[in-house]
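sanity check this:
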Amino acid sequence: MRSLAMEKSSVPHSTGETPSLAETLLSRVRALFSSVRIERRTRRLKLCETLSLGDKRLLALVECGNRRFLIAATAQNISLLETLTVPDAPDVSGERGENSKP
C-alpha cells in the first residue's frame, strides 16, 4: 500500500498545464476536510465508580444530571438498587465522625 506522501511525489507538478482529474479531486477533498469542525456532545451520563464483586458481578454508581443511580449487574441481569440525589456542594472536609461538631 502506498502512502499519501508517495502518491504526492509521483504526481507530476507542471506549471501551465491543466491539473489532472486526480489532482482536482484531491484538492477538493482536502478543501472539504479542512473546513470540517467536529464538536463533541456534552455527555449527560457519568460513570462515577464501579466495584467488582467477582464472578462477573459488579456495582456501579452512575450520575445523570443531579441524580445518581446505584446499579447491580451480573452477566444475565441489571438491577436498579437505589436512586440518590447529588448534593449541591461536595463536602471537602472529609467524612464526619459521630463525635465531630459541625
Summary: Strands lie at 45-54, 57-64, 67-73, 78-85. Residues 45-85 form one domain. The mean pLDDT is 77. The radius of gyration is 28 Å.
